[in-house]
Amino acid sequence: MTSTAFDVRRVGGRIGAEILGVDLSAELDTALVAELNTALLEHKALFFRGRHLRDEDQLRFASLFGELTAAHPTVPSVEGQPQILPVDGGEGIRANRWHTDVTFVRTPPKASTLRGLVVPPYGGDTLIANTAAAYADLPEPLREFADRLWAVHTNTHDYAEPKTEAAAEHRRVFTSRKWETAHPVVRVHPESGERGLFIGGFAQRIVGLGAEESRDVLRILQAYVTRPENIVRWSWEPGDLVLFDNRSTQHYAPDDYGDLPRRLHRVTVAGDVPVGVDGGRSRIVEGDAASHYTPAPAAA
What we know:
- About 20% of the residues lie in helices and about 25% in strands.
- It has helices spanning about 30-45, 55-65, 130-135, 140-145, 165-175, 210-225; strands at about 5-10, 15-20, 45-50, 85-90, 110-120, 125-130, 150-155, 180-185, 185-190, 195, 205, 230-235, 240-245, 250, 265-270, 285.
- The strands form four sheets. Strands 1-2-3-13-5-15-4 form a seven-stranded mixed beta sheet, covered by helices on one side.
- The radius of gyration is 18 Å and the shape is globular.
- The chain has about 300 residues and is α+β, with helices and mostly antiparallel strands.
């Protein structure tokens, strides 16, 4: 096959681009996939409007970027699809917190794909932030300080009180196994070499600091991630697909659509062990290597 040309239309000044002219339901050749990966490294998040893919199309597309994980370490997958996580905003189960996916394990995903199935007529957007741009924004003394820090990430952090029984049950399932992992606060991207802030909602404390000092340091660094200039906002339409680099982004889904339905499917690409500025690699504090999660066997 020959590579199909595609157009890149920037969506945000520092992050995000819409990709036009690629048929995601078709087989894509290696040259085209390499071009898409280059675009992903540059723009951090790629948007494909109105593609209306099937589950098998999403799985095939995501697998072009690496081996796939299971749906989630604890949360059940879509029935019969062990690599697809249902992201359902019903009954108060909302991911309205800045985070990078599954950083509580030693090998968080390399990339995530989200596919819009049911989206509300208003609200329900996804915000994605460029953590490499956030790091570059740091004043030099703060950057040098951050380069030396490590943070412990856990799936049992201090959640807000659930508003519904369904949300409470979701939390029980989410925390049914506990992981704590120490990651470098500044991660060196394994492909681009860029440095980025590797924190987010699962990061709960700074190694060597107390709880209060940890909160203050994480709050200061997180404020650079969520600067408006570092964020792109995607307004979903049914059939949209989003691909983002989980190594250099955080994302957030505002809880602003009331009791309207919102359902996405998520497929994640297996990642490697994060590496810090000094060459140190992430280490398990509590729990296991989550080998049941990454990588995952293909569906039968």
